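Hey, quick one: can you model this chain's 3D structure?
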Amino acid sequence: MNYFKKILLFAKPYRKYAVLNIIFNIFYALFSTLGFLALIPMLDVLFKQEKPPVKIAPTWEGITGIKDFIFDYLNFYVTQIRVDYGESSTLFFVCGLIVSLFLLKNISNYFAMFFITFLRNGVLRDLRDTTAKKIIQLPVSFFSEKRKGDVMARITTDIQEIQWTFLAVLELAVREPLNIIFTLISMIMLSAKLTLFVFIFLPISGIIISMIGKKLKKHSDRAQKEQGHFLSLIEETLTGLRVIKGYNAEKKMSNKIFTSTSKLNKILNSLLNRQNIASPLSETLGIASVAVILWFGGHMVLVENTMDGATFIGFITLTYNILAPAKQISKASYNIKKGNAAAERILEILETENTIVDPEQPKELKSFESEITFENISFKYDQDYVLEDFSLTIPKGKTVALVGQSGSGKSTLANLITRFYDVNKGSVKIDGKDIREVTQHDLRSLMGIVNQKAILFNDTIKNNIMLGVENATDEEVENAAKIANAHEFIMNRPNGYDDNIGDSGDQLSGGQQQRISIARAVLKNPPIMILDEATSALDTEAEKAVQDALENMMKNRTSIVIAHRLSTIKNADLIVVMRNGKIVEKGTHQELIAHQGEYHKLVNMQSFD
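Sure thing. Here's the predicted structure for all 609 residues.
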């Protein structure tokens, strides 16, 4: 229930729709009850029960006499019609009254549903928007711990589950209780004794239903988790389809998916069987209650003569009017238990603490003036430190290359300077300001990033290049593409810069993808460039052309180049050789070659042009 309350907080902006819904639900419940009460005078006409004619219209004598006033007034009015116009006209009048009351009931129901629709869909939209925004804001470290498919399941199937559970309950939260209250008042007015007898059986029904629903949340939670696992398998399969086919692993991956779907099928069967029993069980218990009421009420009519037949039949119809809402409320209790599991998974994301946050009073960082410094930093992803007591200064306008074997900490430095992760010890500073003291927006506005793997989106080439820049002109986009040696192949595309490149840019070759990624960084024109294996996906000819372009672009610019291909960093102002998170040597290409140390060994392992 706590999760339900937290989800309902999203309904605050839509309070006016809730109020309108409540107003029309009040009318719905009122007209519904009056419609059933109106059956009693019709039954009197049908059964031709002779009642003492009321010559004078009854007068209002206060709330305590409301029952006598209503029935005396109906008796007076119907009697007058019977006397003046006959039985046929009386029957026509009563039928018209019933139809009118039920028409008003359904009109009220329509408007109640009309207004609750805006609340339901508004909450759903805001919940999706808030979850999506939170996912984008969460640090990169969060997604190294969570499977992407599980996160996708939470923002899709879990939120959809909330729509069909929690938000569906909102439709019943006012209408059904009001229906029960109005009906109960009418039943008490007809016969307090019979009403008391009816409610002896309701707690018994509630206890039986609640016993079945106790395990529903547990099964729902297991189902949602397994759906997340299934989506993860599908996402991994689609991403790695070439590798799967290349290694003839189709059967292996299919078996993984089949195992997940079989497990999900078993959980869902158990879950739905428990859920489906609610409706027939409620109906069976309801019919049993009605049968007992028929016996007890029949005794009052035939033996005790304390109730007339028409009133008793009206009472039975009112009993039905109270059982139907009770049945809906019992189903709603199932939905709340089921929705709790989905809400818990959504709220787990929404309530996850974001460890990468902006300071409350940030320092201004609008430009880069002097240097980047890593001061005695230590960092670990898990247990072991990747960098330990690492220090390095990068002056403005210089190109610094980071080389070394895989796992030496090169890419980690790029993650730290962009503040995708925060250091465990020490500090990273720009112009003497700790990057944790400035906003992430200001920090990243100074940087252009080209990753080892080009990250492109299912959009046009132009929009991919303009990702970090708004309102760039076509000329600026083309100039950036020319610097990245991409303009020629772009113009050969069917729609040029407006050509859609498909999911992850799959319609382009690896080299073309990387050149679009480089053009994106060029267009942003930042003072600091971070190139993480920027040319690794290019063929030899394209690599040389792009390398020349990158060198021209890096003039008068501070660049951090992470490279395995040492041919791309020969002209760097400083080459830093790393091993196990530490600097083992640094200098220019010529100095390090002359030193014949670690760098010299790496050079000998590769061929230079």
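One thing worth noting: The chain has 24 helices and ten strands.
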